[in-house]
Design goal:
three-stranded antiparallel β-sheet; two-stranded antiparallel sheet
Length: 285
């Protein structure tokens, strides 16, 4: 039986997994900044999953196939983005060569598209990192089974996409999480802040990270000074982050509520991944 989000959220061992996941996502970003930036904001992350799922075969009873019109309609119908934003995303993916015309097309009326090898390899790293972290929690063999037959990835991903699109706990974890994750590069900044946590005591209102360099954040994630300061100022106004000494001096702290939003989001996401993996690979053990 797959692990539930409630069980993960209540398991203190999962905190270590949360930190490991944050570091894994940062490592993937540093290796391929351009493609990783697609996953660095919630809207783009959801659109990327939607595109993969339509290509592999979204579990909707319709044959698999990704083309611009179908993608745009799907994104709009699932309230992920506007029609113009969805169309622009497709053009961007083609321009960056993360999408390409599908080979062996028989229907000239529809321009089928498919992920390039670069895009597929990036998603593979994302999925295998999550399977590895789940295995670390319960000693399962998800990673081993998926790695032994990579064709299973095309079966697991559509199930993940469908579940995250339909799961409020993944799409709307909380106000501070949403602030970061809907901003360009905000998800990366949030992962970075969480990766700096020395531990987490649920009884404390705040957890101190120590000194944090805004210059280092700007350099790592190619985010402008104005954008970063605005993002952090908004989070500070919400009482979610703060500094021991104003203005932005001394050690940085994160609020308990902000950390729990991130924790609960990760719990919901990992539960989705685990359920999809179990449906395709069988029980973890």
């Amino acid at each position: 039986m797959s692990i539930t989000a409630e069980k993960l959220a209540a398991d203190d061992r999962f905190f270590e997994a949360v930190l490991l996941c944050a570091n894994e996502m940062l490592a993937i970003y540093r290796e391929s900044p351009r493609i990783a930036s697609i996953f660095a904001a919630q809207q783009r992350w959801l659109m990327a999953h939607a595109g993969f799922a339509l290509h592999y075969g979204y579990p909707d009873g319709i044959k698999k196939g990704l083309y611009s019109g179908r993608f745009v309609e799907f994104v709009v119908a699932n309230k992920i983005a506007s029609r113009n934003t969805a169309a622009a995303f497709m053009q961007e993916m083609l321009a960056y060569r993360f999408l390409k015309p599908a080979s062996g097309q028989s229907d000239r009326r529809t321009r089928l598209l498919e992920p390039t090898e670069t895009a597929e390899q990036h998603f593979l790293k994302w999925l295998l990192a999550h399977l590895s972290i789940l295995d670390g929690l319960d000693g399962g063999k998800r990673l081993e089974r998926a790695s032994a037959d990579l064709s299973t990835i095309g079966k697991i991903q559509p199930l993940i996409a469908k579940a995250i699109i339909e799961t409020d706990a993944v799409r709307d974890p909380g106000s501070t999480f949403n602030l970061f994750n809907w901003a360009n590069s905000g998800g990366l900044v949030m992962d970075y802040l969480m990766s700096r946590l020395p531990g987490f005591d649920r009884s404390k209102e705040r957890t101190t990270l120590g000194p944090v360099s805004l210059g280092e954040i700007r350099a790592q994630f190619m985010i402008s000074n104005t954008h970063l300061k605005r993002l952090l100022s908004q989070a500070a106004e919400m009482g979610s982050i703060g500094w021991e000494e104003p203005p932005r001096k001394g050690d940085l702290w994160l609020s308990r509520g902000f950390i729990l939003e991130y924790w609960n989001y990760q719990a919901a996401k990992f539960a989705v991944v685990d359920a999809a993996a179990e449906a395709v690979l069988g029980p973890a053990a």
